[in-house]
Structure formats: C-alpha cells, structure tokens
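Fold these two proteins, one after the other.
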Amino acid sequence: MWKGDFMKKIGKSAELLWIFGILFVAIGVALCSKANLGVSMIAAPTFVIHEAIAPLWDGFSVGVTEYLVQGVVLILLCLAVRRFNWRYLLAFAVAVIYGYTLNLFLFIFDGIPTDAVWIRFLMLIVGDIFTALGVACFFHTYLPLQVHELFVAEFSARYHLSINKVKWAYDLFLLTLSVVLALTLFGDASTFDFSRLLTEDYHSVGIGTIITTVINSPLIALWGKGIEKLFDPTPRFEALERLLVRKQA
C-alpha cells in the first residue's frame, strides 16, 4: 500500500514541468559555462557571438544574446515548416524569460572556484544532466517551448520524423556552426591547439561541447521516461491549454 502511494504520479503537472524546464536548462548551461570546457552545442553559438560583440557593446549580456539568437532560429523555423503560427511568438517570450534566468545563474555561479580540472569536469557532467532534464521537461508540457525545442518539435511533426533523430541532426548542425564561428570571428584561428581542448575551451567550444553533443539526446530520452513515470503532465489550467494547443489552426 505504501509503495503504491509512493509511486503515485504527481498529477496536473504540465505547468510545473514548464517551470522546471526554464530553471534546469538555465542551471545546466550556467554550470557548463563555468566549467570552461565548452558549453553545449545549443548554447555555444550564443556564447561565441556574445564574446565577439561584448567588447563593442557595453552591457550586452549572454541572456540578451541568447534570445536574439533564438529570434533568428524562429525565423528559420517558419521558413523550414513553411508556415507561421502566432503562438510561435510565445516561444520568443520564453526565450526572453530564459535569457534573464540564465543571466541570474551565471551571476550566482560566478564565484565558484574552478582551479582543479576534475571539479570542472564534474560541473560539466552535472550541467549536462540538468540541461537534458530541463529539455525533457519542456517536451512534456503544452506551454510554449524555447525556440530551440520548438524547432525540433515542429520540424519533426511537420515532416513526420523521429523527434530524437531530428534532435541529433539539430545538435550536430549547431556544433558545426559553433566551430565555424569560433574559428572566424576572432582572427586567432592560428593559435588553435586541439590538445588544449581537454583542459580549457576555445571561445566556449571544447571537449565539453563534443561530449554534450554525444550524450544530450540519449539523456533527454532517458529523462523523458523518468518524467512519464513520476509526473502526469496533464494541465492544471485547461482553458489555457485549449487556447494554446487544441484550437491551433
């Protein structure tokens, strides 16, 4: 009897999972950034572009860069699926919320000492775990996704493809883009040393970026199964779900 009660799913948790998605992804990315081994392939373009622009624009934060980058991705999504839905704009609003949440956790983790390499690798792994958990939470809620997750979900649905396979392809594309940006925006490609990527990043791209690209999709799938066992992602606010989901054109 006790076991049955313990294993009872947390009901009407769709909105809670959305909040978890925002928080966990922000925590994960901030930890990976602090590890200085390379952020995830999803976050890397933002960090590379921010590093290039920040010296020219006082007060230009990582969070602002993030939602501007996601704005560009949103435009590409509309072109890829050949349609526009006003609800896509809500994903941009989520990107803004996430951007400032990311700024908050970057500030919170700023004072953590990272002298030892093993500590930085630990932060990288924990960051990857949190990031994957956050993305899995997003995929179990009806509320607006961030643009990156929206791209994967909408593209998969539009062309009837496996969402995990589309996520792999999307991650690989962003990894390639991150490497190209890192090698071209700073004029120091001649100083690039592959062996140093094991202990430090190269303009936010490093061994951590590669590791995350390999393990991210399997981790998301694994967390997804766990979420389905622990949570019942039905809406608490059914009228809101009808507005956002059931009456889509």
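Now the second one:
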Amino acid sequence: MRIGIDLGGTKIEGIVLSSDGAEVLRRRIDTPAGNYQATIAAVASLTRALEQELGAHGTIGVGIPGAISLITGRVKNANSTCLIGHPIQQDLAAAVGRPVRVMNDANCFVLSEASDGAASPTFFPDAQMIFGIILGTGVGGGLVTRGHALSGRNAIAGEWGHNPLPWPNPDEIPGPTCYCGKSGCIETFLCGPSLYEDYVAQGGSAGSTKEMVLRAKNLEDDPAEAALSRYEDRLARALAMVVNILDPDVIVLGGGISNISRLYDSVPQRLRHYVFSDSCDTVIVPPKHGDSSGVRGAAWLWSEEESERLSLLWSAEGLPESAANELS
C-alpha cells in the first residue's frame, strides 16, 4: 500500500491508497503551529496510526508547501516558515524508520490529477504535458510530463507564482509586496485573499468570497462582477505566459478559487488574446479529486512496483534498523 501525507500550515492529512489507487483510509490532525520538531513527530505519529489500523507497512510520500534545496538538502521557499532550513526528508525518514519521499505540494497535486484525476490518460490519452496550479492562500504550480513530476535543475519547476504579473496595467505597478521580497508577483494578485481584498477595496460588502461569487452570478453586486472580471483577466495573462513557454496540453486548477465555475468558460476565452499563436486550444479543467489531490499525489510519489516490493519485504521481515537507507 502507499501512504500519502499532505503537510499543510494548519492541518496534516494522511491517506492510504491500494495498488489500484482506491482510497483505503484517511485521517487528519492539526499541524503544530510554528514548531518543526513537533511537526516531524506529528507526521510520524499519523503514519504509525494509519499502519496500525490496517496492520501493514507502506511506502510514504509527503507533500510540503516548499521545496528541497538540491545544494543543502534542506527546505527552501516554504510559506510554512518553520520548515525552512531543515533537512525534512532525512528527519522524517529517521522518525518513521524507512525512506520517505518529499515533494512540493503543488507537484503532488498535479501528479495526482495526471495519474488518475481530471488530466489522466482516461480523459486525455495523448497528453504529454500537464500543468497544475493551486489558487489558494498562495499560488503554486507543478508540471508533469509523461507521468513524471518535474523538479527542475533548481527544484523550482512550476513556480509561476513568483514571476511578475504579465502585461500589467498602470494601476498594477509596482504591485503588492510579496513575502519573497519582491513586488508585483503573480501570487500577490491571484491568491484567494487578494480576490476578496480587491472586491472590498472597490466598495464590496459581501461577507465572504463565496457570497461575493453568488452575488455576481445573480447580477446583484457590481463590485463583485468587476472584481471577478479583473481576476479572470489577470489569471489569463499569467497563464498565457506559461502557455507561451511550455504549451501544456492541459491546465488543472486547484485550491479554493478552482471552485468558481465561471473561470472555465471565461479564462480560456481571454487566454486567446494573450497567447502568441493564431489559435489556443489549451484545455483548462477543475480537479477531479478536489482538496484530496495533494495528499493522493504524495502517495503516488512511489510507483506501484516499488510499493508492492517494499510492502511485501516489510510485512515479511519487519522494519530493519537500516530501512531508511534501502531506497532514496
């Protein structure tokens, strides 16, 4: 069996998948706020609880809101700042007593959707490149080619959110300050909180993003419609940059913003205006697995063959002290 862990800023979710990708078990616990050592212990405890409930060992994949530096082996670029600078892969392997694979949560998201989700071969048998984005508290991205998630030379493949918003309007310059230290990043315009803040700044009075979207749908709120229209145009500009560079077959949206259904009609239409081509047939789809894609993708970090071989080994012989060094 394969175990996936989604390490978020407020919750840690664990899932167990069978060899055919079916969900066997799921559990969720709170993330220890700002405490790295307690977070490692919490992930290990959740993993043990899943295995004890099923009476078997499994391979472990973990999605994190950051990346592992190829130079230091430590976490970088994490918006959960307590993770930064720590060798999380080695620490988790030591805590659970076997190898652990760690990858950026956006990469896990797109790997899930490309494996058995909205962009899987079932729906797109000829697709070779899938780009997945998370539009939530932050803006992340990941890339899968021919079934494999790409990390990149600097372990930042897919980090479109920390590029400047393309073709900015005068009132978008220099743009909001980003936690990365620069201004005008795509993330500062397209994260979920920014959509609602833009709406309120223009006189909107709805109490939530969900209510704002409903008011716009019912034509009850001009600021809501204006804010959504600006957001759609910014999203189209940002995605056009990705299309111009990578030209993916499918783009999968994730995060809370992906639940806004009108995006799947309006953004492809706007995209054509910005893409450097006489046509733009890029497909934009919502996720099949929703909020579960990140944790499912973490489980998919191990192949079926690897998972079966190691699960059989550990079931027969137990977990040896050297288990953490069997595979990297």
